Amino acid sequence: MNSERSAEYVLQTVSKRKIRFIRLWFTDVQGFLKSVAISPAELETALSEGMTFDGSAIDGYARIQESDMVAKPDPDTFQIIPWRHESDVARMFCNIERPDGTPFSGDPRHVLSRNLRAASDDGYSFYVGPEIEFFYFEDSGPEPTVLDHGGYFDLTPLDVAQEYRRTTIMHLEQLGIPVEYSHHEVAPSQHEIILRYDDALAMADSIMTFRLAVKEVALSNGVHATFMPKPLTNHDGSGMHLHLSLFDEDGNAFADPDAETGLSTTGRAFVAGLLHHAPALTAITNQWVNSYKRLVRGFEAPIYTTWARNNESALVRVPTTKAGKTESTRLEFRSPDSATNPYLAFSAILAAGMDGVRRGMEPPAETLDDVFRLSSAERSERGIRRLPETLAGSLEALAESELMAEALGEHVVDWFLRNKRKEWERYQHSVSRFELEQYLPVL
User: Fold this and answer.
1) In whole angstroms, what is the distance from residue 321 CA to residue 263 CA?
2) Residues 35, 24: contact at Cβ < 8 Å?
3) What is the reported pTM?
4) pLDDT 10s digits, 150-180
5) Statement: 19-102 belongs to CATH 3.30.450.20
6) What are the extents of the domains in the chain?
């Protein structure tokens, strides 16, 4: 939609629907949603000039001496918020600019837009379809209490939260975010909703909206929803498997029906790029100390740099397409968790894959057997590496990656490393319940 026409549509809709407040949304570097509300009287000015705010108060944004920032609404993202029963509140995502109108390099949405333009210059469009997992608990206290003891695909009475999912899906569809399906996941009180694929920027906006919608519906029902990667010790954590595809002027650039794996040369090179840059990439797709409690042996999350078609332990999987549906050929990247910043995650993933494409990388052999049964020597011989086992390990890889510095920008990477190293240091200083239960009685 033409941006001028979009702005006019927004102004007319706000007037006709008697919208009282318009929330301007953006994220900080870690992916926390930020919002400022304006009245209809300020809307035309906001659309044409943006709204000034103090960037020094936002994590990862500006220093005090250069604090002025401008939030410029994207009128194409205008939607009325459906969980407000009055239906008098709308939202728009913003691009963050400096007062002179130049894009702010620390804005995650700008980072993704820049990487998408680089791929477009090479003739590609990037699409993403996420499978988003999360938990419902009775409250947000430090002792998670599940609402059910259901398992994979269970229905009532084991899945008591299906009404929460149903309401969430209704809200998402009202916001123009199509849902493919939803179900109870493997762990008690764990759920999954799969969004229909879309271009990466629209999908990043949708994921931010999705997370808020899930939490708002939970809150309205007196429970707590969390995207924490691993809240329960003895059960699977919450991942966000990402289905990735590149399209060029000829269609799906990953598809080659004549290839044994169904993957084109471009698709294979994209896989190779993901595997090659996986250690540094993990810092972005799994950015929390808790993320690495999910990336462990014994559960479904991948921990080795492998790819395969039907091997669920693979980091990158090539899902089998239906007969005659080669245009649905895609890659499934399985390591990201649900608490990542989608703008930065998509940027890093696209940069890694496109590096493989531009350099004509070839992936290692497909891993057909159980990677966990291979010896360390066998894995090493096949070029299979362990993903970083801690946040500290992934940060080291990120700090050494020239590609990630270029893709995300020095501003984002420098702040991210400083912030996450502090998080790791705080974690190292803490004494866990495991240590107290294990050592206090005997030492």
Assistant:
1) 11
2) yes
3) 0.95
4) 777 666 556 578 889 999 999 999 999 999 9
5) no
6) 19-102, 114-433
